[in-house]
């Protein structure tokens, strides 16, 4: 069964609800992130969910935080274990176990720290029009999905819910967060992306681009927050299917997108996915987890 919505009966205050995650205030300095099995495509959330998706994505974020990216700066991860949670939450383990994560609550910088290794999506659209990516000049004659010589830091504003983020030139980050933090965020973003990209490449996955968020801790450190390097926050491509000069299939959502388009319901709210689409999509999340972590998924 998929879990599409959490309900802790007022035990904790709900701080925010995103497309996928329900975020609760655990204490003055900790938050509880709960990744549901909700899935969105073309900006709308489906009515039914993908069983285990929230657990797989939580486990994947935890994997990056605690292994590959552990030594690239600080991150907000504290624990994903039920034992860490207070007694009053234990009775909600069916909703929380395996899909929740305690993190340090930080002051979030108002910038989406996007790193792009490949020319695709909105960057490709801008490049075709003006030869630039977020206003940065890039070499002429590049084709769609081609790798940049070096990854680009291409931030965007962090828009309020329901609004679209706006792509900005990296130099404009300083106006949002100040010069010193802007430099630090760019440096960390590129280092994190490069480390993850090289790791994933050896396992058959291209991380075409990704989005990081950062917060500030009480000691003035810039800390990696949010989810990291999941199919929801990144563009993954299968290396074996990759070919430059055309668009690439979405790693996890291609079945769903095709079905929505073919059924003429793309962009319509309240859509129920048929079992077959749920199953195919679910397989992709399992596959991403297993390829990247190198270990078999075990349901907790
Ligand atoms: N350690 C942290 N401390 C405080 N806030 C955090 C921390 N980590 C992440 N956040 C914030 O928590 C929120 C998580 O929201 P979530 O990503 O679920 O939804 P959203 O960003 O509003 O929408 P979307 O579903 O499109 O991502 C984000 O605003 C993020 O900046
Ligand atoms: Mg978000």
Oligomer state of the chains in this structure: single chain
> How far apart lie the N and C ends?
14 Å
Topology-level CATH name of the largest domain: D-amino Acid Aminotransferase, Chain A, domain 1
Approximately how much beta-strand content do the residues carry?
15-25%
Biggest β-sheet description: 8 strands, mixed
- Domain count: 2
| Structural class designation | alpha+beta
CATH class of the largest domain: Alpha Beta
> Based on DSSP secondary structure assignment, what is the total number of beta strands?
17
CATH homology group of the largest domain = ATP-grasp fold, B domain
Rounded average pLDDT: 97
Instruction: Give helix and strand order, one letter per element, not per position.
Output: EEEEEHEEHEEEHEEEEHHEEEHH
| Corresponding CATH architecture of the largest domain | 2-Layer Sandwich
Question: What hetero molecules are in the model?
Answer: adenosine-5'-triphosphate, magnesium ion
Which blocks of ≥5 consecutive residues have pLDDT under 50? none
Rg from Cα? 19 Å
Shape: globular
Number of helices: 7
Helical fraction:
25-40%
Organism: Tuber melanosporum (strain Mel28) (Perigord black truffle)
Pfam families: SAICAR_synt (PF01259)
Pathway: Purine metabolism; IMP biosynthesis via de novo pathway; 5-amino-1-(5-phospho-D-ribosyl)imidazole-4-carboxamide from 5-amino-1-(5-phospho-D-ribosyl)imidazole-4-carboxylate: step 1/2
GO cellular component, one term: cytoplasm
List key phrases describing it.
300 residues; alpha+beta; Phosphorylase Kinase, domain 1; D-amino Acid Aminotransferase, Chain A, domain 1; 2 domains; 8-stranded mixed β-sheet; 5-stranded antiparallel β-sheet; 17 strands; binds adenosine-5'-triphosphate
